[in-house]
Amino acid sequence: MNKLEFQQKISESNKPVIIDFWATWCGPCMMTKPILEKLGKEYAEKVEFMPINADDSREVLEQFHVLGIPTVITLRDGKEVGRATGSQNEENYRMMFEALAEGREVKVPIAQFDRMLRLGAGALFIMIGISTHNWIVGGIGGIIAFMGIYDRCPIWKALTGMFKRS
Amino acid sequence: MKRNMSNTDRIIRVVVAAIFIGLFAAKVVVGVPGIVLVVLGVVFLLTAVIAFCPLYVPFKINTNK
């Protein structure tokens, strides 16, 4: 699909769009593809699901500056409102579909690998901090670990919610 | 800010950062070399967490392929 064909497809759709950039050689893409297809069917009335083969659509990839796949991009009125790079679980993709369908802000969830990397790195630095009695290193570890779970922390949600309201 | 770093790249950076900061924290490397290691370690750690390396941009390197 070239840039023009893609633009035409987008303009024809009066619904918000979810694009899935995938390729046959990409293992994680093949794992997430059935999940996205299932969700695409489920939300077909409210959201247009558009899988795009990255190998056949280089122009579209460049247009969106997609550097790695799988990448899922959400569009509302032709404008990008969210992007998830890397494979996500079904729950995270469902959140994106739901937010788009209901006209809410699309919050891009933390990918499972990112969560594990942040928690792992955080734990590693906390251990280094404790074993060397260096509390700054331990503190850095704590911050990194928190970055892996902040989206599930009710205190963080309440605090950021307060700032957004004010 | 788009990702330009693969997961393997990120894991390596975390491990290298841990070694660098660990060396300083354990007082194996002290003084100016130690501070250099800490700065490098923090940069590695931050870039690994956000999956983006600004230095890759001018050289058009992208390990996330």
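qc> The two ends of chain A are 45 Å apart (CA to CA).
qc> done
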